[in-house]
């Protein structure tokens, strides 16, 4: 009965999406001529967002000078006189005051239409990064902070956590090392940076290609073939994801798929395998120098699991829980291969092809047609309405605000019940030349309490590259783009909901494990009929929202073969953890041994060397590849337990905002989520949800 009531609400809401854009007062139409808007005072937010190149350089100078002055003052405190007031509070206040100034210098490189401003911003970012790293390595400041911390003065739980974070940051940056060991640390970091760069360069410089006949490319779409360069009557296939992935998904010729997969799996060559092995050795040396038993423990210490042992246990349990589902999925794919090719031998080169065939057979969904239901304006207006309704918020556009481009809009965020100001967000969502190319969120200011008793409110920027209207035709979004914008706007709401005292505990400064959980939780609304109808409408008649059947198909398409997909991800994560917890591991041998065990007997493709083309393990996600799966599991538990049965329940939304989003990093994230759930998080809701929709 409750389900029917929700569906009736959707019938009313289906046409609501058409009215929301008017109701929310969103002026997304392009302005004919650019004008620099007048500066408007915004309560709780003082940083400028439209600086010239010269202003950026001067501001960076002032930031560095003030920072040095503050650190010098803390360093001058006698050890026996160190107190919260003279050792900790000045650093907290410095962070509160300087973060929005730093971001005012850094943001322009991503958004400014001026080359000079972008260049000045990039230079300022490099200078500021180097300066702040040196600050966190100052032994004289560290000794004062450590002396205060060891005194054990009672200062309240959030302040205690802040001091612990300060101590850990200094120690992880080598502040307690001797001068000789610090030089060794810097040398190790420099070597690691050089090898990271070489690894990526080797992949980017890989120019090998294959020449294939049209017979060998049977099954490929005509548009794909037309785009391939023709040489001696054959098609030139580059070993890039743009060519390789479509062939592995569409090509009917098994030998071609295998040839492509093997060639792509050698992309980095033996040189990259040697680089990765050397990188791992250097990382272990760095970790031991800093007092850790291995690099994985160093990387994971500030994250939710805290130890590599906990991560390995999590991955092994996940692999075991998914085995039954993955085996059933693999049986379906093997049957399809026997029917089509008469060959029971199933290899990794067959996965994408037969997954796509099975999905096309079982899911009645035309992705091209679905796009017609997601005009940009309607998606954005519906998304804003949904977040307001769910989290008891009110967004109000601020006209004539100072912005960096005419298509940018600024909104204030207030609690819908009390009208208290919570923060601001800028929407910079339309494409333009020179702008940062990915959808993301940038914090301009963190919410925090200043020493004078005033509060700075959180401010964020949502960046994207949505198409603009052309000749009166609605600009449309592909469904993955809808999900991506929704995901990133969830980060905006997380940031603005923050009520922590210290700037350090902002919603966008959390470790990745916790920071991604709310956004992955809220992605579920993109696959549910009641919420997706609020963000959709046929571009020629926006009163006609996407159908309930299409919503169900989108969800099923997401979850089909989730077991096998996750098994591949778990394999990568296990390799990442094992090589970063143990020394002298032959990475190629490790992968050959693990592959059939994790992938249900499917062997590693002969001739491939995955270690040569694992960019995430090499750069950026070393020892923390597990993080995304971890966050997905927590998000699934939260969704199933608190939201699944009533997606627009304001009581649940407000409680989530206050209990999970508001604390930011001021409490242990595992405690926050466990308290909210009333128990420890479980793997079961994640496995059950994927199993339900997979087959």
UniProtKB/TrEMBL annotation:
Binds 1 zinc ion. It comes from the Eukaryota. GO terms for biological process: peptide metabolic process; proteolysis. Keywords: Cytoplasm, Hydrolase, Metal-binding, Metalloprotease, Protease, Zinc. Transmembrane segments: none annotated. The keyword Lyase does not apply. Its cofactor is Zn(2+). Residues 248-689 form the Peptidase M3A/M3B catalytic domain. GO terms for molecular function: metal ion binding; metalloendopeptidase activity. Belongs to the peptidase M3 family. This is Peptidase M3A/M3B catalytic domain-containing protein. It comes from Brachypodium distachyon.
């Amino acid at each position: 009965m409750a389900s029917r009531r929700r569906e009736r609400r959707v019938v009313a809401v289906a046409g609501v999406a058409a009215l929301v854009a008017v109701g929310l007062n969103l002026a997304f139409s392009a302005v004919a001529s650019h004008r620099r808007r007048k500066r408007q005072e915004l309560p709780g937010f003082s940083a400028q967002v439209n600086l010239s190149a010269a202003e950026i350089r001067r501001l960076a100078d002032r930031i560095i000078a003030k920072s040095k002055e503050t650190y010098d003052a803390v360093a001058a405190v006698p050890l026996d006189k160190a107190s919260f007031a003279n050792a900790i509070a000045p650093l907290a206040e410095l962070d509160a005051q300087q973060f929005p100034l730093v971001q005012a210098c850094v943001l322009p490189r991503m958004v400014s239409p001026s080359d000079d401003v972008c260049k000045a911003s990039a230079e300022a970012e490099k200078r500021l990064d180097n300066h702040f790293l040196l600050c966190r390595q100052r032994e004289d400041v560290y000794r004062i902070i450590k002396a205060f911390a060891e005194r054990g003065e009672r200062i309240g739980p959030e302040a205690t956590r802040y001091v612990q974070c300060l101590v850990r940051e200094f120690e992880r940056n080598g502040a307690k090392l001797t001068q000789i060991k610090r030089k060794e640390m810097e040398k190790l970091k420099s070597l690691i940076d050089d090898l990271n760069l070489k690894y990526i360069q080797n992949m980017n410089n890989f120019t090998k290609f294959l020449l294939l006949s049209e017979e060998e490319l049977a099954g490929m779409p005509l548009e794909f073939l037309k785009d391939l360069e023709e040489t001696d009557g054959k098609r030139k296939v580059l070993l890039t994801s743009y060519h390789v992935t479509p062939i592995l998904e569409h090509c009917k010729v098994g030998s071609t798929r295998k040839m492509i997969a093997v060639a792509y799996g050698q992309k980095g060559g033996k040189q990259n395998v040697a680089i990765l092995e050397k990188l791992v050795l250097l990382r272990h040396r760095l970790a031991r120098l800093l007092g850790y038993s291995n690099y994985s423990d160093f990387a994971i210490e500030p994250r939710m699991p805290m130890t590599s042992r906990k991560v390995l246990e999590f991955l092994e349990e996940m692999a075991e829980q998914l085995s039954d589902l993955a085996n059933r999925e693999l049986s379906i794919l093997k049957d399809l291969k026997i029917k089509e090719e008469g060959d029971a031998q199933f290899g990794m080169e067959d996965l994408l092809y037969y997954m796509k065939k099975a999905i096309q057979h079982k899911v009645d969904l035309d992705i091209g047609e679905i796009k017609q239901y997601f005009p940009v304006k309607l998606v954005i207006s519906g998304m804003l309405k949904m977040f307001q309704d769910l989290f008891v918020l009110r967004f109000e556009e601020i006209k004539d605000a100072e912005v960096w481009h005419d298509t940018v809009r600024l909104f204030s965020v207030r609690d819908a019940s009390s009208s208290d100001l919570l923060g601001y967000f800028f929407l910079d969502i339309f494409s333009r030349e020179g702008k940062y190319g990915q959808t993301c969120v940038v914090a301009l200011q963190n919410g925090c309490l200043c020493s004078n008793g005033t509060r700075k409110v959180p401010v964020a920027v949502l960046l994207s590259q949505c198409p603009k209207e052309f000749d009166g035709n609605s600009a449309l979004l592909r469904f993955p783009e809808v999900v991506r914008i929704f995901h990133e706007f969830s980060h905006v709401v997380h940031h603005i909901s923050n009520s922590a005292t210290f700037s350090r505990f902002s919603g966008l400064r959390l470790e990745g494990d916790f920071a991604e959980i709310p956004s992955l939780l809220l992605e579920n609304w993109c696959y549910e009929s009641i919420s997706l109808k609020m963000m959709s409408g046929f571009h020629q008649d926006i009163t006609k929202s996407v159908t309930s059947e299409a919503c169900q198909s989108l969800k099923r398409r997401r979850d089909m073969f989730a077991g096998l997909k996750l098994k591949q991800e778990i394999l990568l994560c296990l390799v990442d953890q094992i090589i970063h917890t143990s020394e002298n591991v032959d990475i190629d041998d490790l992968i050959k041994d693990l592959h059939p065990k994790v992938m249900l007997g499917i062997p590693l493709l002969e001739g491939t060397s995955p270690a040569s083309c694992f960019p995430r393990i090499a750069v950026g996600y070393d020892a923390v590849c597990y993080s995304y799966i971890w966050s997905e599991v927590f998000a699934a538990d939260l969704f199933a337990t608190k939201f699944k049965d009533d997606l627009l329940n304001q009581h649940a939304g407000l409680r989530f905002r206050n209990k999970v989003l508001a604390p930011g990093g001021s409490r242990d994230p595992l405690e926050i989520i466990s308290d909210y759930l009333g128990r420890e998080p479980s793997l079961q809701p994640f496995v059950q949800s994927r199993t339900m929709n997979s087959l």
